[in-house]
Amino acid sequence: MLGGGGPRMLRLAAREADVVNLTMRVRADGSGPDTADGGPGAFRRKIEVVRDAAGERFGAIELGTSILRVGGDRAAASWSAADPGTQQDTPQVLAGGPDAMADRLRGWREELGLSHFVLHHESDLDAFDPVVARLAGA
Predict the structure, then answer these.
(1) Which residues have CB under 8 Å from 41's CB, separation 6+?
(2) CA dist., res. 44 & res. 102, Å (int)
(3) Helices 7-16 & 40-54, crossing angle to 10 degrees?
(4) Is the pLDDT of residue 85 over 80?
(5) What is the pLDDT of residue 48?
């Protein structure tokens, strides 16, 4: 697994990794996420960079991203890279109850080919139990 948000890292991941985790691009000075690298258009362009660089092996690559759960007691959550305001229409922010979250995850898999999601907060694990149950058909 390799993760990245900038085109050079995404091209490397596309050539070498079995799983590519799409993240926000880091500022050139390494001081943190590039806040200009947000929104659905930027997220989709990252997938295209991976697709173009991977060529024929694209179908064998699993695409994923880190997600922030927003809702319940964590309506104003913080995360290392995602700004819920600019990222809310991307797969990096997941809001709503279990049914809504499961529907969004299914939609992103169908529309964008995403199948790998990383949670950053241990407290999100219990909240995702019913989401996973819905995705598994339970």
Answers:
(1) none
(2) 20
(3) 40
(4) no
(5) 97
The full set of domain ranges for the chain reads 2-135
Residue 78's pLDDT band, with cuts at 50, 70 and 90, is very low
Judging by DSSP bridges, how do beta strands 93-95 and 62-70 pair with one another?
parallel
State the virtual CA torsion across 77, 82, 83, 85 in degrees, nearest 10: -90
- Beta pairing, strands 19-22 & 62-70: parallel
Vertex 85, ends 75 and 88: CA angle to 5°? 85
User: Which residue matches tokens 């596309």?
Assistant: 14
Q: Which CATH superfamily is domain 2-135 in?
A: Luciferase-like domain (3.20.20.30)
Residues 121, 115: Cα–Cα separation, whole Å: 19
Reference 107, options 117, 122, 118; nearest CA is 117
Residue 34: which residues within 8 A CB-CB, separation 6 or more? 5, 24, 25, 26, 27
* Residue 137 pLDDT greater than 90, yes or no: no
